[in-house]
Structures
1.
Amino acid sequence: MTKTARKERFIWLDIMITLVALELMSCFYYGMRSAVLGGICIVVSLITEMICLRLMSRRFTADDLTCTSDALIIALIMPATMDYKIVAIACIFAVVAAKNVFGGRKNIIFSPAAAAYIFVLTSWEKMLLLYPEPHAKTGIFDEPEGLVNSVSYVYNTTGKMNHTDFELLMGNFSGPAGSVSILMLLIAAVMLILRKDISAGAFMGTIIGTAFLSYIVPASPTAKIGYNFVTNMVIFAAVYIISDRRIAPKRQYYAFFYGLFIAVFSYVIVITTGKENAIVIVSVLFTPVSLGIKNLEKKIDLARSEASEYATVNISTDAKYDDESEIVEKMEDISHE
Amino acid sequence: MNKKKSSIFSGMLGNNIVLSSLMVVSPVIICGDTLKNAAALVYAFSAITFLSVMISSFVPTKLSYTVKIIIYAIISSFVYIPVKLAAQEFFPGAVERIGIYFPLLAVNSLIIFRSEAELYKLPKDHMIVKLIFYILGFDAVMIATGFVRELFAYGTINGRIVDVNTPVIGLAQPFGGFIFLGLFCGLYRCIRSAVINKKEDIRSDADVSCK
Amino acid sequence: MFLVNDLIALLATNLILTQALGTSTLFIAAGSRKNLVGTAFMITIFTFAGSVSAYLADKLLPEKYSDFKLLIYVISISMLYVIILSALYFISRNNFENSRKYIHLSVFNCAVMGTLLTVSGRASENTSILKYMAAGLEAGTGFIISALILTAAYRKLNSANVPAAFRGFPAMMIYLGIISMAVYSLI
């Protein structure tokens, strides 16, 4: 087993641990229905992934279990009372249309979870954006009742926040099943960054971009900067969607600006249109930007390796450069080419 | 001889203009959301394309490419007028529903480019058969797209309600058309590849295999 | 802030992402950067100049002859086609051979004709020529944006990792579909 393959599995394991912790928080607030929802997502994704791999004549390996983390992300960005059929369709869409059609985990283009979220948003918007109140537990087979708008919706449209900071930190407010547990998300973010499982640059870019704009253009005169992090799935998306190492640019410097621009765009959309959870939509719209940056990174790497090879050959044949500036010029020439 | 024959009939399955050459995809993506729209488009496309190509086939081949292209476009724009008037009679409301995609059919790639590059080089009888199969290929895709998208997006078949309890409304939108057509295209290539491999007498094409 | 909103508006009115106009041309153009630049440039010229002729046709053609609108547009685009080809031929015969394929590719496609028909459909009696021209330019810019979106993923969509049945056009179609879905959900 190669080092990279082993690393991929460890990343998946770390992410799964944090997602399971969020799922437990969700169970605490919304009951067993949330766990069943997560379970359905995992099973459907796993079966679909296996079928897709079989059709592509590829073997199912432990690395392909990454589909389960995407499945759990899908479960956590939905309301705990979401229709089981819809989440199953969303998972099938994520695995087939957003992932395996492009070649699966070896050639990821979109975040499968983000694409699935938008897919559900475009077809079942009303069901997606109505949430149960915390502690109002719905039975596994019961029809959900007393659904309300999310705190994000109220905040986006009125600029008011009717919850204490402690409630916000603990996730005791209506919203997507897993993305409201802010304290847990912050712990997950620190853990994943320290273990290099997510792109620190993209995460920091998103956080700094949101903080900067919240300070410059506040949603309302009474709004605290922190409110813009706890609403609209900003932290959840920053950790699990934008900072996804499969999607974000490799270099931290580029990843930072990638995250920053997503944050800026989504904040402006939230401020001007009140669109709920705009950050997930913008992250999909920024996929071509990320791909463009990755192409650029590849070209730079190629130019560097060619330049170093060129320099080594010339030095070995006694055609030595007088100073480093010449090597730099050569590198620039190649990168321009 | 067999190969020649199969190439004439290939317009419908083997070399479908929508799924294989990606021609005339805009109307399929945008208007192929119901069977009614699909039927109106099938009529419009078949009538405009057949008449235009037939009339255009009398244009002297000695003319320069640019002049010929312009003449083809003008002929199809003329053909569009009676076809539109007939559509208003036989498919009331269809012209309004389809909107700009109705006149756009008059400048489709099959009339303007494919006919010049391929059809007019064939003997007349072969040309007619090939053209008919190209048109049938488009019609089949359009009807299949309209049927599936209407069923899953609205839970109806030709306006009649059927028991689909979780309709995917997004499938009726343009993006649904893009995604559906992409998946349909992939499935078509997969089947085509399987058929080609089975026949063995036709050269296998690595690009279209499923593996 | 305004720039972000303008960009979103440009995406929301994008002729490919929202109307699927010129999709086939885009797929051909995205094949190489040279093709992309050449085609996008020519389509912008055709939509821009064509919108002027659409304005004239809309103003001068009596309502009862509206069925002839398509014919008038085709004739105007044909004249533009001949003028551009002739101009290129007389300006630089060396470039003529290399550039004419972009002109052939850009004329009479859904992007150009669809733009003229859309602009004309949205216009009212009071719509000025500037609005027509702006709409033509917007359509051209929309094509360029879509082309850039596709070019960014071109290598990945054609890589050996993509199943052969989906490699190329089908993958491009689904990719554009997902981007279009994101644009739609913002509107």
2.
Amino acid sequence: MEKNCKVYYNVNGDYMRRRQNYKKKYWLILVFLGIIVGLGILYKTVNDNRNLTKIEGLIKDTGVFINKIAYAPFGFIKNKIHETQLKNEMYDKYLELKQKSDNYNLLEAKRQELEYQLKEMQKVLDLNQILSKESYLNATVINRNIGVWYDTITIDKGSKNGIKLDMPVIVNEGLIGRITKTSNFSSTVKLLTSDDITDKISVKIKNRDDYILGLLSNYDSTNKTFIVEGLDQNVDIETGSLITTTGLGDYFPSGIIIGKVKQVRTDNFDLAKIVEVESAVNFAQINYVTVLKREVVQE
Amino acid sequence: MIIFIIILSLLLENIMSNLIPMGTFFNPLFSIVALVIIYPYFNNDDLRFIKFCAVIGLIYDIIFTNTLFLNMIVFIVVGLTIKLINIILSNNFINVMVISFISIVIYLILTYLILVIIGYKTFDFNYLFSTISKSLLSNIIYSFVIYIITDKISKKHKILKID
């Protein structure tokens, strides 16, 4: 009897242990599935192509408005300091501008001539639409890279001001990024310095009288240079050559400056050239930007 | 007091990010520091504290980063860490600075790893390390200053908190 009880106890104990193991396994599978589902949701929400919902837009606009009010006095002081610095540099600037203004008439005459030639050519080719008619919208930066990793800035103009997704954003020195999110009164600009590997920009490098096409693939944060790839090994590229957008692709119109060639090197297999591009834009301190509103104009 | 610290920190984080150039040794993450400072004011009501972390994370997501739920999850993890460390450490300005240090490191590593896993960023250890080192100084100074100010206010107005 005692032996039978012991056997029964052992069988029952094994059964309980197995059941606990099964439970543990189920929990592990559930946690694993939960992590995968969670990462999937995060992938969807972090993605640039997601539009903000109305509630999100409302909360964001309210938050941005409060932040704008809170920042206003500090911004005022910052601008005053900047103005004083500019005043100190004014005489040097005046001399520089005077020199430029001497050439103004010459350049204006040349521009008018080129405009006339362009119109004549359009007539000859019977072109009735121009793709790159642009209007400009100036905006102030109200948030800069909060959360550290995202390489984005928020500007104080939104869809109510005519801003749409993927519009290019520039500063005086060149291209800085594109609009990735809009709410009614604010927009998010994704900077070119972000290492989003899915975004490659088609660019052209001025090489004497010709252009060489390449792809701006990523940003080297250590050297603070952009990397242009997809260039033939046999082409000669001079340092200091200007790099602009080609207009090929979905986002950027032709002719926006990106930077100048800093260094040319070959890739690890000696099959293609890689160009390091130095931008004149100070990405660490962007205060005002211009959004290019691209339109198709029927003539 | 809790609401005051949170609003002040969120506003200051925005102001400082605009005043100081990006990539310098002052990466403000004041909202994380605020979580460390407010924990004693919950008087061991941990569930309420974690819920509060989730709400702050969600607000941070919507207003600042457009990344719905990412900061909410990370803020909850940071909140749990703060709760666990507070079991071991008492509440004084040195410990607050230590907890702020740990919280910022956890926040940055966790967000970076999630962004790498979902393909938003490419992994670069040097970049991660330099960003963490750049974020510590200003935030630890802020934790010290805000602790001193709030501690004096709470003593003056006899606001209850655990020590």
3.
Amino acid sequence: MSWKPKHQRMALLGVALVALVGAVLLAMWGLRSQASYFYVPAQVESDPPAVGQNIRLGGMVLEGSLGQADDGVSILFTVHDGEAQVPVRYRGILPDLFVEGSGVVAEGRFTPEGTFVADTLLAKHDENYVPRELEEMTAAQAKAAVAETTK
Amino acid sequence: MIAELGLLALWLAAGLSGFQLFAAILAGRGAAVLGEAIRPVAVMQGLLAAFAFAMLVWLFARTDLSVALVAQHSHSAKPFVYKLSGAWANHEGSMLLWVMVMAFSGALVALFERRLSVATMRATLGAQAIVTLGFYAFLLISSNPFERLATPAVEGNGLNPLLQDPGLAFHPPTLYFGYVGLSVAFSFAVGALVTGEVGRDFARTMRSWVLAAWVFLTLGIAAGSWWAYYELGWGGWWFWDPVENASLMPWLAATALFHSTSVLASRDALRVWTVMLAVVAFSMAMVGTFLVRSGVLTSVHAFAVDPERGTFILVLLGIFIGGALALFALRAGKIAEGSRFSWKSREASLVVNNVLLTALLGIVLLGTLYPLLTESMGTRVSVGPPYFNPVGAIFFFPLVLAMMVGPLLRWRDTKWTPVVQRLAPAFAAMAFVALLVVIDGRAGLLSGTGLVLAAGLALASLLPLARRKPWRAPLTLWGMVVAHFGLAVTLAGASAESAFIEERLVSLTPGESTRISGWDVTLRGTIPVAGPNWTAIEGELAVSRDGAIATILSPQRRSFWSPPQTTTEAALWTRWNGQLYAVLGEPAESGKRKVRLWWKPFVTLIWYGALLVALGGLLALSGRARSALRRSIAVGRATQRREVA
């Protein structure tokens, strides 16, 4: 099969374009269905995510809420943002700097009962690091959170 | 004095880099004298930058606390090795390392590259000067590593304990060498665009640099993944984290680039595309640096982030890439048409490789930047494995198939039937593994397919050696075989790990045990231990089978005091068929201790495979170097003979 150079160039360009457009379309589809959205407890209350949908939940760990579940390994605690509260159940080893009263981002999903089941906890990872999602919140809402927990 | 000397050297190097740029421009307009000066200036600049970096390392070695950077990131009680690595484990130092390597590579290009025409060489070194100049400006204006404190600090702040690790001491420099190698490829591409000389010599010159960059990137990514695996204590080896993606994207682009340069070098086809890829590869290195340094995305690896500096890098990125693309738009039409080729040929399979790799690159890039896009519209999202794994696999799996077939095809034209016959053993292996996977039933769709393809590729990658005497095969062929085989090994490790992993999360009282993958793990107790700059609680886990103790695992929770921080030290026990991975958790109720265990079948294959891939690159590189040397000796002899005659 012999092609004229111009035709081959066009065909190559066509193949590359189709593949790239395909990749972009696939990516957009994948992103729409698979990206996990970030919620704070107030949003969960006003506009609850679907049960089983992967989301990230960010907020402060409520003072005095940390406890152990009956299975002996899961951890229970409450995340709040000064406006609303969400009960969280986490099965795993707590991050090194996870303490009551500090910020946390939990990755997981809601059960039909309204408990958030977390697979991963992102806590501060050195003394200067704050998960990016919490930066704005710690400025505006942490004050309210602290005020509420200390009153 | 040392700091001032370093700063002076840095300013001089920046000045020389500016001079190099103007000399290149003026020489292009006929000032031949200036053209002569470009090479020596580039060499001098490289030496000065190396000197400046040596001064910084010296400051860290002495823990000179009158220097702001040392005071912020070092500590007199730190192990000596980490004092040294502290020099580049922070923003300013790592940027100095970057610019030093870049200037030094410029010097190497100026000293040793003789294949390009004088004009292209000048334009190349001019382009290299623009890039280095941008980084000098970045260092001197916004991140001077040699800044003094008004009053010396009494004690340093220390280095983040997560970074006090042998793997991580060498991981960032390795990646930087890779990024810088791509910057050299970029300069070659710009130089070739300026003169329009995009041909085989261009490809041959650039190929070694891209290959070297690619070897470093491979090693850097493998080291980073290994570090995340054992240091973070999460048991994962790849999180599709923005910072990980930032190193993967240049790697994908570089992989595509050296495959397309081999088409350009052998068949003089894909000219415009290769130039474009070189620009893309360096853009990805810059995007990577931007993502890592700016902290615009949440990352588990983000250290030393600073949004302001991110902006500076973004501006540099805009100038370099915008400039290169504008030049590309202006000049691409003037690059003479390359050769045509048949659809049934080695070069066509390499086109398939390039298209698929570019598509993969696009998918990773979109997934990485998507959170930034939605954030600008007020929604915060994160993108993780549920997106990257399946969407990436759609392009990665066909790529593996192409890797099986491509190396068996000839340049120019091939008949299909013999190729299919040669691949028969690989197909048989795939069918056999597929049968096993289905019978076993534990593997998911992705990990199962991964295992099948790994088996096929492992066999198929060896076929190019099958019909010749292996010891007579050229090193470059060996390089390809080893690298492709290495990828099969990595794929096998990754698929086996995700298909057959076992996990236990338990609360144990001392003396109590749990069972994982046939091993009984007993918690004997916890003891306090201390290191040079940390204290820790250490768990003592006895691993036994049928009552006979096989090993003791000692995972720790460490507390460092400067800076104050706790880290989880996982304990690993490597067997031939996998790894036992133990993490000590927090205390649970009534004197119990939480322990998390994983049995990870064949997980080490992931990094052994990566090492093979890098070794393949190294073999190919030395093969090229050897033939270049032979050629230059032959040319030398020929001229001698002519002179004698």
4.
Amino acid sequence: MAARVVNVSAPEQTFLEKIYLIEVAKGMIRTLGHFFRNAPRTLLHEVPVIGKKLVAKLGIPTIHYPEQKRDYSDRFRGRHILKKRDDGTLKCVACYMCQTACPADCIHIEAGEHPNLAYEKHPVVFEIDLLRCVMCGFCVDACPKDAIWMTRDYELSFFTRQSAIYGIPELTEKPSDTASDGPGYGYRPYYGQSPMKKAGEFQPSGLALLPVLDLRAKAINRMPPPPQAPKPAPAQAAKPAA
Amino acid sequence: MTAQTAAQPAVSFAPLLEKKFGGAIRPEPGPKSDIPTVGCDAATLKDLALFLRDDPNAKFDLLLDVVSIDRSRLPAAMRPRDGHRFGLSYLLYSTRHNQHLRVRVGVPEADPKVPTLVDTWPAANWFEREAWDLMGVTFEGHPNLRRLLTHNGFVGHPLRKDYEASQRWLCTEEDLLKTELAARTEVEEDIFETMTLNFGPSHPATHGTLRCVFRVDGEKIVAAESECGYLHRNFEKMAEEHTFTQVIPYTDRLNYCSPMINGNGYARTIEQMLGIEVPPRARAVRSILAEFSRIMDHMVCVGTNLVDLGALTNFWYAYQAREQIYSLLEACCGARLTSSYARIGGLSNDVPANFADWCRTLCREIEDELKEIDGLITKNRIAHKRMRGTGYISKADAIAYGFTGPCLRASGVGYDVRKDAPYDFYDEVDFDVPVADGGDNFARYLVRMEEMRQSIRIIEQLVKKLPGGPIVSDDYRVVLPPKEMVYNEMEGLIYHFKVVFEGIKVPPGEIYSFTEGGNGELGYSLVSDGSGRPYRLKVRPPCFPLFAAFEKMVIGGMVSDAVATLGTLNIIAGELDR
């Protein structure tokens, strides 16, 4: 037990250290060194066009927010978005998984019947109270339908409490979210190709030897409806209720 | 050695207990990974405590925690034989024998009284006040049994199972906010000689909502009383209302200077209870990020403490390193401060591809920053004058008040959970435990500086042998299955559904699991009733005993020394108040 301990004790001061003046000078050299190293680099920021890139490359830790913004990783947990299918309808099927997984009780869902019967169920109300949300990402983990992702948008400020409750119109993914100057995708259930199989790719489970299950496999592979579903987008149908 | 994974060690002094107390003491079997437990009655508690503290074979000199529990909603099979509604568990540690022990006492509902142990362990003072405040167990003979975490206008005891969590009690009367000391001063005669000074709760030097009332004679403190609870949100009650997974984001808010360590400790507790294996890669990454968090914690402590002493520059050097670590954490888990990275069974995501190189670069940068702080402070005459000899606590007092972590090591006791009960990867890396004998503010500063260097050593060794493989266990009763399974297979979806809706089914039982937090031993006492939610989860916040001793440490010193002492103790309000 004794060998692993390293004893630290206060160092005794020499006479030169005690008279202090030399030490003051040494300290000044140290701090001024930082100043002269950092000042030119910080001034570079004012140089148009290339200045900001140079600063980023030289690694100045201070960021001139809001002109300059920090680059976050693609795991950043920011504002949520609801993903859409190819035909523009929400992927969400109102299964209440995210609402159940949420530790802050900030998600409120009301389910309804989808106008397109092939989709069966969809959220009539889907609200996230961003003032309650703790941005833990558990809703993204919990979603079995790949319907909720997060963006890198962290600039969330509101004038009223009511405006902090985002409904379906605000949460639905917009082109501006992934535009070149937009926040971009953040935390999501997978990175790269979606592991979700498309129609025709489903394998019947282990008991495929039975002809009945073969029929079942065919039925599963018919499940995702054809994309040429009629245009009355359910997003519009949902609007008055939201 | 209480190696936490080994079988539960027998109480070596059990025959002695038998001989001295006869049938009044009974060893109580628990899960394999739990600490040994003995049960006793309220009547024998005082004698037993004295025996355990003083007998050379026991020597349990450090009281870690007092855990209270309301057993009224426990399933019948888990009810104790005595049938009492309340239970108290005293968690003890022996610095001589490196052994943990739990002493369990039943308290009847009709007359919830237990003799106080403040005379045996001074640390019991605040722990007992907390148990009275939150659970309503009275401690006979306690010198100051008043509310601690809640305010004086509060009605009821929130951790009782029949307390409705959504109730609100507003503190509107000014008198209710007065501490005992402030109220006493008004009536005493020497009011013209001394004056009462309110320090906090929102004072820039307290770095958090801590309050202390000083009675000063000129600049000298003659009496002091510290108070906490301004950031109290009852984490423990909240944990009872959420599933095991949902508690993880709450743990980030305990010690917000090192959130990773809290999450790891919590996940470890549940994993021990479940008995599941965590993949080696997850354990290594947890250790690496925990060490980075420890560096952040110490950087915040040293940096802000020096600001309070007037040395602002070091703060920037320390915070620069901290910012860089936050960026690494963000790339791993998606948030800079509220990480929620740990999952029961592993971690939520694998680390980024450049993780190892990033860690090495960071280690170099942190070393540079440390050298700068070292060069400016360690031999600085002003720093010596301000910190040497102030805020002194002796070895015996530090143990008696329940200190752990850097503050205990600065008083000369080399207890470090990473060494004495190794977990994760700490038994496979080579590092030293810094110990100083000074017991003063400067010793605590030196210990923290050295610990950061040791943390860098640990990180470098772990990065070198970072194992491959999965980052999370594949036990789908506990862990959410991978998305390929959830999206495409019925079985995967069923497991996913069960984990989300029902929570993790933790087997019934009680456990105390401890890790080394930024400020000392961070313990989680968990009682599970077999459902998806914790029945009782008690955190042992390392700050709590430190702040309890603060009022004793500052007496006789200057007000400005009190600021320095508060800084080196590194009280984090989120963890102190829970």
